[in-house]
Amino acid sequence: MPKRGGGSNLMWSAADPSTGQHGPEGLYELGNGWGNENVFTMAEGIVWFRYHNYIASRLREKHPSWSDEDLFQSARKTVVATFQNIAFYEWLPGFLGEKTMSPYLGKYERGREREREREREGGG
Q1: Quick one: pLDDT band at residue 62, thresholds 50, 70, 90?
Q2: 6, 79, 118, 122 - which has most CB atoms within 10 Å?
Q3: pLDDT exceeds 70 at position 51
Q4: Of 45, 35, 30, whose CA–CA distance to 13 is shortest?
Q5: Cβ neighbours of residue 104 closer than 8 Å, sequence gap 6 or more
Q6: Which Pfam families does UniProt cross-reference here (predicted)?
Q7: Torsions phi, psi of 4, nearest 5?
């Protein structure tokens, strides 16, 4: 489970749905200020949180020498890819119905992820 709020991280912009009070007390720290806005977004956040921890624990079994950061980032990539797969190949076609998106004609250059990450962080 995500830890309960109550620390100094006041990122919450939505009120606690059960009390109407603002602030982190009694809310989950899901990484998104809107994660506690309603029961569905809270439940969805907890499901993805638990899935991330499940993937990380499986990776720990397969790769016991990996650091916590390596485990976290690898699990994160799996969770993001799973979410994208659901969104693009299951939800989006149902939402669009007969409408279709044009194919992506851009060029993906494999192996440049670290370079792009440094560029986004302003280091490169």
Answers
A1: very high
A2: 79
A3: yes
A4: 35
A5: none
A6: An_peroxidase
A7: -75, 150
The two three-digit tokens of residue 6, written as one number: 């109550």
| Helix or strand run (H / E) with residue 51 | helix 39-62
8 Å CB contact between 2 and 30: yes
User: What is the C-alpha to C-alpha distance for residues 91 and 39, in angstroms, rounded to an integer?
Assistant: 20
**pTM recorded for the entire structure:** 0.56
What letter represents residue 68's amino acid? D
Sign of CA dihedral 11, 16, 22, 24: negative
Mean pLDDT of 4-29: 55
E strand intervals along the chain: none
